[in-house]
Structure formats: structure tokens, C-alpha cells
Amino acid sequence: MNYLSVRGQSAPVGFREALVAGLAPDGGLYVPRFIPKLRRDILENLPDKSLHDLGREIAQLFIDDIPNDDLNRIVQEAWNFSIPLKQLDDRIWLLELFHGPTLAFKDIGARFMAHVLSHYLRRESRQLSIMVATSGDTGSAVAHGFFNVPNINVYVLYPSGKISRLQEQQMTTLGGNIHAVEVEGTFDDCQKLVKQSLSDARLRKRKFLTTANSINLGRLIPQTAYYAWAVAQYQRMVGRKEPLTFVVPSGNLGNLTAAIYARGMGIPILRFVAATNINDGFPNYLRTGVNASRTSIQTLSNAMDVGDPSNFARILAFYKHDWPKMRSEIEGVSITDDRTLAEMKLTYEKTKYVLDPHTAVGVEAARDAIKNGARDGMFIVAATAHPAKFPDTVLKSIGRNVEIPQQLLQAMQKPKRSTRIPASIDQLTDILMR
Ligand SMILES: *Cc1c(COP(=O)(O)O)cnc(C)c1O
Known about the structure:
Blueprint: E1 3-5, H1 15-21, E2 30-32, H2 40-44, H3 51-62, H4 68-78, E3 85-87, E4 92-96, H5 106-121, E5 128-133, H6 137-146, E6 152-159, H7 165-172, E7 178-184, H8 187-198, H9 201-206, E8 208-211, H10 217-238, E9 244-249, H11 254-264, E10 269-276, H12 281-288, H13 312-318, H14 323-329, E11 330-334, H15 337-351, H16 357-371, E12 379-383, H17 391-398, H18 406-413, E13 419-422, H19 425-433
Parallel strand pairs: 4-12, 5-6, 5-8, 6-7, 7-13, 9-10, 9-12, 10-11
Antiparallel strand pairs: 1-2, 3-4
Bound molecules: pyridoxal-5'-phosphate.
Pyridoxal-5'-phosphate binds at residues 104, 106, 136-138, 214, 249-256, 303-304, 358, 384-385.
């Protein structure tokens, strides 16, 4: 498989090069030349497949230069936790993606990427610096995924004061090869700094740099596996093969892009609901055909506070800029904080299930889609984070606390270590050159 830049000004590359480069030399995101189809015998026998079977089969289609045995080991080691599908009510199911070490779905892509990179780097002497901008959960997932991986330094850029203390503790307390950079600005500023440093020729000459944001294919591709796995579990549990609608709580649109790719690979998916908070640029685009990037607004579902989603370019490329086709397959729904809180309360009262605010945006969006006359069939909401990561919001909505898992308690007690900088490339360069 070859990978092309969405801007079309860079030469095609293999997976390894796309992974290490992060961004193509022309500044565009890499996309696969085409979306490969899963083999018929796999698609027809989904209920017999495990998460690791599906992960390996999918990885094989996208990665030519790693032997199958190694890919098998990589998915087993990266995904050493479960991703269960649970029924919430008569139309809505939850795919719990938050059982990894940092309790959010980003562990799944970040850990896969870390294991693949360490496979590629095992005979190298160079040090690779990985840059990552985070609006909350990416930073900790990447930091934990790469912690103590030889030959790798991670720089996590996060917006000062705009993430929860728990989230901050999770990425500033590891130390070692993990460097936390607290940026005086927004998430979009952090993202811009990462893009700037990656396209800075002078810096790249001296440093072996890449990114592990959701713009990196190494995180995006493995995320397709859990959509296949959700369908496999559904078919096994229900004994039917009807196509399902996936509801994806969205910020940078990486998770949604992975769902779209999974469908392209032949996984039976009917439609998508892109659920956002009031940072509603993508739902707006679906409605109007006009894309306007804007400054992000802070909400309770802060990992989705994105004004200018990076994977939008990939979705446009997938649909070849065909807006009518895109909106016939994807419904955009934007949910306010008030509705998020109300949904958390409602779900808890009806089922005793505690939703985190991001997943609540998805569940509330699913209810909208159902109300808007959505055809029959089941809605599977990507449950993107564990509620314990958002104790204040949980307390406010349901009037009680959820138990804090052990890994969070430990992070809370360690001292924070980070370097605070203004949103300027010069200051960042100083840190990288240390
Ligand atoms: C990152 C994140 C999202 C948004 O995912 P994208 O791939 O950026 O659209 C949603 N929920 C949680 C909990 C996240 O951490």
C-alpha cells in the first residue's frame, strides 16, 4: 500500500515513511492510495473473529513491510485490554473504548503506533522526537504508549488551564522520555506549533521529528479495527447481520475517519452520526457545504473542543469533495453542555450507567438522529472515555461520584513536571534543542 498527500504535491510513500514523517513534505495529511477490502471469508464470518484477528488482518492490508507474525504480536501487546459492546436501551449500544491505561479510546491507536514504531526503530541508533498536541486525552495516551520506549522522546503540548487536573497529572507525572510543554494558548495554538515545527526545514535537519497526533496514520489505521470488532460482537450477540449506524463523538474527526475507512473496507455499516459539542464546524459544513475554521470554544467535553479539525481534509479526500454524497452518509449533530449534562442524568436514572461527557454527546446525538426519523436499526455509540476522568461533571450531572480507578489515583499523587511557554515556535525550538 502507498500513501499520498491530500495536497497532491508529495511523492507516494510506504507506511513506514508516512508513519515517521507524520505530515507529508507538502504540508498535507497522508491518506492511503485506496481503501483495501477485507477478504470475503473474513467479512462473512465476522462473529468468529477476535479483536486481534481483525486488527492483524487490517494491519496486513495497510502495512507491507512487517511480517504477519510481528503484526500479530503487535496487536496482542498493544491491545491487552477488552473493548466490549454493551446494550444501553432498545436502539442504542455502547462500544466501550476506554479500558486502556489512560481510560480513553486514544490508547488504542497510540499503543499500536508505539509498538509499530519501536519495531521499525529496533535497529536504529538515532533518537526520534515525537511531537503531540493535545486537547485532553491524546497527550496522556501517547505519553503512556511511548513511556520508556528506547530511542524515543515525546513532547506533549497542551493548552495551559484548559484541561482537567486529572488529565494534566496523567501526562506531566511520567518523567523519563516524556516531556510536558504547557502552552499559554488554545489547543489550536498547540496544534499549529506542532505543524510549524514539523515543516521547519532547519529544525528537521537537526532533529528526527514526527508527530503522534491523530493526523498520524499509525494511530488512525488501527482504529478501524474496533469498528469491525463492534460489528463482529453485535452479530455474535444478536445473531443477525443488519447494518448498523455508528455515532462518533468528534473533535479532530480521526475516530470518524476510521469509521468511514472501516465501511470502505467492507464492514457492514449503514451510516454515521458525527456528534460534536458546540464546536460545530463539521455539522455546519454538512448542513451548508461551507467550511469555516474558527477558534475553539471550551466545553465540558473538552477533548472535542476543536475549531479546525485536522482530519476534515481526509474525509474530503475520501468523498472526493462530493458534499451531497457525504451528507447522505453522515449526519452531523451538535450538542450543548446543558444537553450533555441532561443526558448523563437521564441515562443514569434510567439504567444506572454513568456516561462520561464525550460519550453523552454521542448518546444525545443518537437520540436526535432517532427522533429525526432515522430509519430502523441499531445505533452504536463510540464510548470514548471512562467517566472517572471527569469527576466534576459527573458529580454535577448525577449527584454522586464514580469510583476512581487505580491508575488515576496513582497519577494524582505524583508531582507535576512541565515547562510553560508562550505560543511561539522559538520557545518550542529551544526546548526541542536541549
Ligand atoms: C479525542 C477524543 C474525542 C475526539 O476524537 P477525534 O478523533 O479527535 O474526533 C472524543 N472523546 C474523547 C474522550 C477523546 O479523548
